[in-house]
């Protein structure tokens, strides 16, 4: 049974103790450090760019010199942490060790060079006349920055190969255990093997989840999410299907039910590996990715080139392209569920497109023979006509697809067929089962698993495990219908130009409660001055996330509540920094508000944890810490107020205020993390005396 995109593995993924991305335990903190280093390096690249682009005649005030030195030191420290992670990867992967180590050495050299060229500590002293700095050797900074970028990229690419290998190894382990599960016929042995299988699936979900987040191609990301969701749902279905098979070993429908789940899981596992390795089995080409809409777009682009160059395309090529395109429309016209009106309209528009291409070719041939104004006008008219026909065809196909999907959803929305199927199963009604199984199969040929589960219950109406099994399959199908309806709405919105608003579904953040506030945040493109201001605020925020990560790195106990909340806040602040650059996971105004609300809530949780920690301190130290808490709490409440205040389409003002408040919170966070660490060390020293 198909499944929609969604998180695989759930909360359990965070608790697994298996082999992580670099061969260490997931809870070792190495994965966290890798992400932390990447988050640290990326904003600093922007800072380096700022250094390189600075004007030579800029007044070299003490503040400017301190800022330049701070950036240089931050780059060097971040590179140092990056190199440590790179070396850890190299030690776990001997086949790549030499390449990674060379790239790490280059990165370290580049970081040290940048730190040396931005060292302004002795610039104002008399003996510093011959000192080489960014002001005297800008070329040196550019070379070092390029070397840093090159070496970091090498390490990341090599680490990427390691992750791909680990995903493949994890998939192979899952397949091997699945093979054992298929053959098991003893319940006790099944429980032991399924427990191992569950752990391996959680590990696989963890690895593929990280990979999914790293994918840039939205189609690949959606395919990965769908495949992982299939595996997540099928894992539960496999449990009940296998138990039913063991309880009723001579029941053919029970075995058919279990085999269907195994087959679907194997297909999903292959799909994940196909996406990760970017190659299909047996060298096949992915025809499904070439949609009719893409075909129409490419065809129109080709005919429009005739305006500039009459010899760029051949007549045969254009005819073949249109034939291939119209052949794909047969999926609609041959479908038994396409209405007569839609079918006739699609055939009519297809014939019209063929006729207009022939007219275009005739004018095209004439235009190649002689160049006149009237011929040019005829050619332009022919191009516009066929483009219009294809646009109409595209609209008709969309309308047909939406209607078919809507009919399917409407048919199953109240789940009448599923309820009837369950009832016939409990009653042992074979005739009723056949009737409702036929109705389901008419709508979806791949519903064999639900039907076989119902058949098993019908043959064994008093079996509790058979009933539980059918319930699990029916719930999965109901979930599928719900997700399909949501996706249908979104697709229709995009097609009709209503972009930006997302429905709360699947793994996306849930919409916030104050919907009235969302309406005030309509798309509003800021001018260049506003963009520059937001970008400047973002850079400062990016640097503060780097400072926070540095403070977090000091803590030995990475699972300390203060550290966990601090890390979460730093990660969210980094996403906000990416938003100011037009990058990252925050795409819409709703996403932004949701992220800010969660950030403020996390800040208040941190304040509570720090307050609890303060009870261990002596009066003077406790007062010092409470003063910092008293700065954080009001800032978090102010940020919450900003997110809830409608500003009548003044999006820039809202973003400006939000980022400014976030920056103040992050500055306070850095101070709090530093102070808490010092006071914790002080307590530990006193306890050891």
From TrEMBL:
InterPro entries: Alpha-catenin/vinculin-like_sf, Alpha_catenin, CTNNAL1, Vinculin/catenin. It comes from the Eukaryota. It is found in: Cytoplasm. Its main location: cytoplasm. GO terms for cellular component: cytoplasm. One of its GO terms (biological process) is Rho protein signal transduction. Keywords: Cytoplasm. GO terms for molecular function: actin filament binding; cadherin binding. SUPFAM superfamilies: alpha-catenin/vinculin-like. It holds the Pfam family Vinculin. Belongs to the vinculin/alpha-catenin family. This is Alpha-catulin. It comes from Tursiops truncatus (Atlantic bottle-nosed dolphin). The gene is CTNNAL1.
